[in-house]
Write a structure and sequence with these properties.
single chain; mainly alpha
Length: 84
């Protein structure tokens, strides 16, 4: 039978995984930015705009992770409250 401590540990692991995913997304965002600059320097404006769109997509994905982390943190608080 699972305990509240095991639940909290599991949720904390999920939070850490999401934070690692955010870091990975930072790398992807930086790569898109670099590609955009490279295309712009080559005069390939449409490719530069396209890669900026990729960067914006990564930023939107990152923004979607924040509420999930917040909700998981609230669940931890709730579970800890049940232990008292």
């Amino acid at each position: 039978m699972a305990s509240l401590d095991e639940f909290v540990t599991s949720v904390q692991s999920n939070i850490e995984a999401l934070k690692q995913a955010q870091t990975s997304m930072d790398t992807a965002k930086q790569q898109a930015e670099e590609l955009s600059a490279q295309f712009q320097s080559l005069g390939a404006e449409s490719m530069s705009i396209g890669t900026q769109s990729l960067k914006q997509g990564v930023e939107q994905a990152q923004a979607g992770v924040v509420p999930v982390i917040t909700q998981l943190e609230q669940l931890i608080t709730q579970a800890q409250g049940l232990k008292s």
